[in-house]
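Section 5.1 Outputs to date
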Amino acid sequence: MIYLIGGSPRGGKSILSRKLSKTLNVPYISTDNLRLVVLPYFKGKDKGKNFPYIKMFNLAAVDKFFLRYSGQEMLKADIKEAKSIWPGTISLIDHLLACKMDYIIEGVHLLPNFVKEYKDNKNVKIVFLTKIDEKKIYQGLLRNKNNGDWIRDNTKDNKVVTMAAKSLYVYGKFFLKETGKYGLKCFKTEDNFLDKIQKASDYLRN
């Protein structure tokens, strides 16, 4: 069985993947890692064109990132990168299916428009996680200080946290709309987070 877990940044994709991996004893990989595998095959201007986050994002300057770019610009960049790595991702999925291997693939790059082609495949389970309440997203970010959260642990100004929450809300709206459009399962995780993660895990395993 191939498990595809997509959705918003900070929606719980990595937590669900680790939980499912431990429960089923199945390996998992993030599309963030697949991105790094595909990236060297793009040269010169094509690299910057197909992977806009190369110029946009620097982990050492997260504050500037959220102050400089809107949620719409971030989402547009992620969609562009998703398109760039999808040929490699689909090759991996099809290879795993042909070899009858169990695997978990998670990441923001698994767009509903892409994974819909596996919707009726009995050997593929698909779920999305997202958050759409901007106020609760903001409160969640504040609570996650020093808790391994790449956003909260690298921001010093609450204004930046506010901008981050707005950006994540944009992603949330996108994934909720797109999963509804293609009839894909989507869990909203801003409330009762761990309970929703468990429900998503149960959904994938049943």
